[in-house]
Amino acid sequence: MSEDLLRRPHVWQPGTSMPPLLLLHGTGGDEHDLLVLRQHLAPDAPVLSPRGMVSEQGMSRFFRRIREGVFDEDDLRFRADELAAFLTAAEQKYDVPAGSWLAVGFSNGANMASALLLRHPESLAGAVLLAAMVPFAADEPEDHALAGKRVLIVNGDRDPMATPDQTRRLTEQLRRHSADVQLQPFPGGHTIAPDQVPAIREWIR
Terminal CA-to-CA distance of the chain, rounded, Å? Predict the structure, then answer.
């Protein structure tokens, strides 16, 4: 069963430092897109970078959307469950401590990371969310499922999709489950801003 799960296209790069990074690309990317971040964020860390398995007009994504800015939340839940199972198989295959991943996701990948935190908190130790939106519209009851998990949200203040309101709502949603959320806004749009990388590296350390 685990071998079947690991047929999903992905890149594994072993390393010696912790935490291991889980890289989640944006729409139209693939498992190679964010590998360069390893050198800038944690060059000695193990890295797992899977491909999103949904195709939207030929572009890979981690889950379906109804239209831009409106997620298919049923599919998001299904894909989060699927990714959690993949991570469990990868932990066994690559000898990674269970639930030790630090997700680093951009746009669609960041939204998948948030969904994974909320739906399978045991799967991740934390996350760096780049250009991130609210994954689930409905607010769930407060609990402490994310206690001890660190989350960094890096959103541009001129992002037309991951707007300041989205940032506020995402922060509230994660904190409602006791996540330790830190914000790192920057003057820009829907992008990974190179000048933000040093601060992200320090946060990871």
Answer: 35
Q: Residue 178's domain spans which residues?
A: 2-204
Task: Give the chain's mean pLDDT.
Answer: 95
User: Whole-structure pTM over 0.85, yes or no?
Assistant: yes
pLDDT one-digit tens code per residue, 155-203 = 999 999 999 999 999 999 999 999 999 999 999 999 999 999 999 999 9
17 catalytic? Reply is no
Catalytic site includes residue 159: yes
Tens of pLDDT, residue by residue over 47-62, are 999 999 999 999 999 9
Number of domains in the chain: 1
| Active-site residue (options: 49, 114, 159, 177) | 159
The DSSP element (H or E) to which 88 belongs, if any, is helix 73-94
The answer to whether 95 is a known catalytic residue is: no
Q: Which of 49, 60, 107, 123 is catalytic?
A: 107
Whichever domain contains 160, its CATH number is: 3.40.50.1820
Residue 65 φ/ψ region, left for φ over 0, alpha for ψ in the -120 to 50 degree band, beta for the rest: beta
SS3 assignment, position 28: coil
The label of the residue with tokens 């969904």 reads: 115
Element (H, E) at 13: strand 10-13
The active-site residue out of 81, 100, 178, 190 is 190
For residue 56, give the DSSP letter.
E
The 10 Å Cβ neighbour count of residue 14 is: 11
